[in-house]
Design a protein that fits this description.
Blueprint lengths: L8 H15 L11 E5 L11 H19 L3 E5 L1 E2 L3 H14 L9 H15 L2 H9 L9 E2 L3 H16 L3 E11 L4 E3 L4 E17 L16 E2 L5 E7 L10 E4 L13 E3 L6 E6 L11 E4 L5 H9 L26 H14 L3 E14 L7 E10 L2 H12 L4 E3 L3 H10 L4 E2 L1 E2 L9 E3 L5 E3 L3 H12 L10 E2 L3 E2 L2 H4 L2 H4 L10 H6 L2 E6 L4 H16 L4 E6 L3 E3 L15 H8 L1 H10 L7 E3 L1 H23 L2 E2 L6 H26 L3 H24 L7 E2 H18 L4 H11 L21 H24 L7 E6 L5 H11 L1 E6 L7 E6 L2 E6 L6 H27 L1 H6 L2 H28 L1
Parallel strand pairs: 1-2, 3-4, 10-12, 16-24, 23-24, 25-26, 27-28, 29-30
Antiparallel strand pairs: 5-6, 5-15, 7-9, 7-11, 7-14, 8-9, 10-13, 11-12, 15-17, 18-22, 19-20, 19-21, 29-32, 31-32
The chain binds one RNA strand of 78 nucleotides through β9, β13, α7, α10 and α18.
RNA sequence: GGGAGCUUAGCUCAGCUGGUUUAGAGCAUCUGCCUUACAAGCAGAGGGUCAUAGGUUCGAAUCCUAUAGCUCCCACCA
């Protein structure tokens, strides 16, 4: 049957993925083999595949497939994350489209909608991962809100509470006015913003003229009527309704006259005290700071210290509240504009300056966060940070690249308590139950809570309906941090066999932007509950950018659709494209051209297969000496490459490993070996050569399989007769045996020789069909060498010569000189120029070597082998120069 | 404001504890080729004072110092 000249991935991919599933090759059960376990960074349950996932999961699949082929019991556990805030936002939007407000329905109704949404859109991303070829154990698919994971979360919460690590309290937190929930510090992203610094007039209250001492350095502002005022610089004039003090630095000479005074908040006309605190930076602005304890973290701190009143001028959605007394109901942004205009009109705006500052935005909803005082649950981090630092610093967990160790340490050293409560419904509801008479109990179930409540209050009449469970849910990461533990049910049943077998897992592949959110916290949980790391190695991928280095984003429209790419280039092509553009740890500048390269490589493999498959085997032909020589060489070459690939993969240098495999197949196997063993057109091939070639092909496919699972399976299946149930993915990866450098070096010479003759053909415009003759000097080619050269360069003969050959084109390889007699075709002038150039180069080279050798410091200090090497360079250069000079003389 | 990292060919990057013929790869470019597996291909070629300035050393892309530029992370100066 005719095989197409082009590889068509689609049917091949579907066929083999189904086969793998059917054969249960992805599934893993504990057995006597060494386990190799990876847990997927769970994507958002309702998310769709983007380029970041493609990169991340391709790398995981490469590692997992390789481990499996090394005979390990490989287990890659997939799953999804309930993504509390993101999913809730999506459900709220969807309801809004139906005219339903979240506030109009009950929690139960809302959760029903959310589950419907999850079931409808959930898991799409996992299906997409199958298209990519991911060899996950799908039977183990987990969800951060399924029963086991939920119970694990609740049990952990209760345990930490009982250990005194979880507490509840009123704190200044990051408030997301869009999602209407508190956020952790990690969920706030600071962005540079070009804004303005507004200088406002705060008039002295009941100015009786006292205090103006006229001390040196004092700066007293007075208006046209002689009224004195202080000037306060602020970026947020809309918060003046919440001002409850003005603060100066007691050591600030400029503002001594304000000590003990009261000032009037502009527009608001409320008198506030001037307080003193060294916190205020004398150099900044005017040295006068307005204090709004309800809306700024620092002001809150000042407010606590100086026992100031706190006025919350914002509603939860960041519109102005009744408490502000003015502008009620307006948004933050509107008020800013309005109040600036009003201040200006009232003559209370001294001046405005351009100013760059950082504004915190919600990572999820992208709206500016508002510091807000509220009652929240917190997890104490001091102890957890301590236990999480050690394994990374000690190298029990290795980071790739290692620069992240510093980052990790720095974060843990400066860690603050983790705000774990969210004012959302979609998530794990906090297992705290409030008692009718105040206070609360924390328990895994309502029944246990009731029991505790009765014990605590002594009131035996209490019933379940008297208890009110906390409305809040837990931060999504409070479930993710248990992932490696909870996937094998290690939280609820830490002694179960699976958990004991698979935990700790081996490699974690993740993006660096969640090192704190996730990686650090998993280490904490692992150490706290198992006194054991959750994984041994963490590989941080880069961020996927476009080829111009811009982040991929919806608004830029520069992010390709992964499934569309797979459709156009095949899964293997896309995998290769992604891996090639992904140096370890660096950002990935994705260029579709590399995906094209991947597709082209698939085609290359495909066609190599077509060639080999077309050969008719014959037992009656003797193995040609060229084939024998070529096959022997390739064996060494292959072994060296295997060693290289293994080394690269062991160091997580995945793109290098792929590049080595790529070059091995294309350059060494296809361009050299296949050309050497290829029989003449229509002629059969000797059985021995064919068998050995097939064996090499098979090994190459195995090496490539982790990177390109589909095409390698397809060809592996066709290469030889296979039994049902066999697969390359469960075959053994070839291991490296020793290779002989001598053989490899000799072959490199051969390559140069062949290339040199090809170049001469090109220069002289000689058809490859014309046979040439080569004479070699200072080279002792063996029969195999000669046979291969004759075949690939189409030589009638290769003879050794002790001297100069006239009327020949020539080139040099090392000290050897090769002549191709071309009577009448030699352009003497051109030849002379070329030789002269080579000679100049060689002389310059010799000079540099001689300079080195002439330096007594060098010969005395450098190690013997280095000096020896220089002497060899010298000798070689001299030989070469002698040859060139001789040759030039001949041409004269 | 603090910390980390980067700067090598047009682009993206290797170059490990300083010495392997005066720096390598892939892509891109250029030149030949529709040569009987592959034009999604083959055979070749060009292209770099290793950011800059000093220093250490017999010897520096590699180690040290400074400068410039870029990137990332952290941080409560309004």
């Amino acid at each position: 049957m005719e095989i197409s000249a082009q590889y068509s991935p689609r049917q091949v991919e579907d066929k083999w993925y189904a086969y793998w599933l059917d054969q249960g090759f992805f599934s893993s059960k504990p057995d006597g083999r060494e386990p190799y376990c990876v847990v997927i960074p769970p994507p958002n349950v309702t998310g769709v595949l983007h380029m970041g996932h493609m990169l991340n999961n391709t790398i995981q699949d490469v590692l997992v497939r390789r481990a499996r082929m090394q005979g390990k019991n490989a287990c890659w556990v997939p799953g999804t994350d309930h993504a509390s805030i993101a999913t809730e936002a999506k459900v709220v939007n969807k309801l809004a489209q139906q005219g339903i407000k979240k506030t109009d329905i009950s929690r139960e109704e809302f959760l029903k909608h959310a589950w419907d949404w999850t079931h409808e859109h959930g898991g799409i991303i996992l299906k997409q991962l199958r298209r990519l070829g991911c060899s996950c154990d799908w039977d183990r698919t987990a969800f951060t809100m399924d029963e086991t994971r939920s119970k694990s979360v609740i049990r952990t919460f209760v345990d930490l509470y009982n250990k005194g690590l979880i507490y509840r309290g009123v704190r200044m937190v990051n408030w997301d006015p869009q999602a209407l929930t508190a956020l952790s510090d990690e969920e706030v992203i600071f962005r540079d913003e070009h804004s303005k610094l507004y200088y406002l007039r705060y008039y002295l209250h009941n100015d009786d003229g006292s205090g103006a001492t006229g001390t040196e350095g004092e700066i007293i502002h007075t208006d046209a009527q002689g009224r004195r005022y202080a000037v306060v610089a602020t970026t947020r004039p809309e918060t003046i309704m919440g001002d409850t003090a003005m603060c100066i630095n007691p050591t600030d000479p400029k503002n001594q006259w304000l000590r003990g005074k009261q000032v009037v908040v502009p527009l608001v006309n409320r008198a506030i005290p001037v307080i003193e605190d060294t916190y205020v930076d004398i150099e900044f602005g005017t040295g006068c700071l307005k204090v709004t304890p309800a809306h700024d973290v620092n002001d809150y701190m000042l407010g606590e210290k100086h026992k100031l009143q706190s006025i919350n001028i914002f509603n939860d959605d960041a519109t102005i509240s009744e408490a502000a007394g003015m502008y009620v109901g307006m948004s933050r942004e509107e008020v800013r504009k309005q109040i600036v205009a009003d201040l200006e009109k009232a003559g209370l705006l001294e001046k405005t300056e351009d100013y760059n500052n950082k504004v915190g935005y919600s990572e999820r909803t992208h709206v500016p966060i508002e510091p807000k005082l509220s009652m929240q649950w917190f997890l104490k981090m001091e102890h957890l940070a301590e236990i999480a630092l050690k394994p990374v610093v000690d190298g029990e967990i290795k980071f790739y690249p290692p620069k992240y160790i510093n980052l990790y340490r720095h974060w843990l050293d400066n860690i603050k308590d983790w705000c774990i409560s969210r004012q959302l419904w979609w998530g794990h509801q906090i297992p705290a139950y409030y008692l009718p008479e105040g206070g609360f109990v924390v328990a895994e179930t309502p029944e246990e809570a009731l029991q505790q409540a009765i014990e605590k209050t002594g009131n035996k009449q209490l019933t379940l309906s008297d208890l009110r469970q906390d409305d809040d849910v837990l931060d999504t990461w409070f479930s993710s941090w248990l992932w490696p533990l909870s996937l094998f049910n290690g939280v609820l049943d830490p002694n179960n066999a699976e958990f004991k077998y698979y935990y700790p897992t081996n490699d974690l592949i993740t993006a660096p932007d969640i090192i704190f959110f996730w990686v650090a916290r998993m280490i904490m949980a692992g150490e706290e509950y198992q006194h054991q790391v959750p994984f041994r190695n963490v590989y941080f991928t880069g961020i996927v950018r476009d080829k111009l280095g811009r982040k991929m984003s919806k608004s830029l429209g520069n992010s390709p659709d992964p499934l569309d790419l797979i459709e156009r280039y095949g899964a293997d092509g896309v995998r290769m494209g992604i891996l090639l553009s992904s140096p370890a740890g660096g950002d990935l500048l994705f260029d579709e051209a590399l995906t094209e390269q991947g597709r082209n490589f698939c085609n290359k493999i495909w066609n190599a297969f077509r060639l080999v498959k077309s050969w008719q085997s014959s037992n009656s032909i003797e193995q040609p000496i060229a084939a024998q020589y070529g096959l022997e060489w390739f064996g060494h070459r292959l072994n060296r490459a295997i060693a290289q690939i293994n080394d690269d993969l062991d160091k997580y240098r995945i793109s290098e490993a792929l590049m080595t495999s790529f070059k091995l197949f294309r350059d060494e196997f296809s361009a050299w070996l296949l050309e050497i063993v290829k029989p003449a057109y229509g002629q059969p091939i000797d059985a021995k050569t064919l068998e050995q070639t097939l064996a090499y092909f098979e090994q190459l496919l195995a090496l490539l399989h982790p990177f390109m699972p589909f095409i390698t399976e397809e060809l592996w299946q066709q290469l030889r007769t296979r039994q049902q149930g066999e697969s390359i993915m469960v075959s053994l990866m070839p291991s490296a045996s020793a290779h002989n450098e001598q053989t490899l070096n000799e072959f490199e010479l051969l390559k140069e020789l062949v290339a040199g003759i090809r170049t001469i053909r090109q220069e002289k415009n000689l058809s490859p069909k014309n046979q040439l003759c080569a004479k070699v000097r200072d080279l002792q080619p063996n029969n195999g060498f000669i046979a291969v050269a004759a075949k690939l360069a189409n030589l009638s003969a290769m003879e050794t010569t002790a001297q100069e050959v006239q009327g020949a084109a020539s080139f040099r390889i090392g000290t050897a000189e090769i002549y191709v007699p071309l009577e009448g075709l030699i352009d003497t002038e051109q030849e002379r120029t070329k030789l002269q150039q080579e000679l100049d180069y060689a002389r310059r080279f010799l000079d540099s070597v001689l300079k080195k050798l002439g330096n007594a410091n060098f010969t005395n200090h450098a190690p013997a082998h280095v000096v020896e090497l220089e002497r060899k360079k010298e000798a070689d250069a001299r030989t070469k120069i002698a040859h060139l000079e001789e040759r030039l003389k001949q041409l004269e």
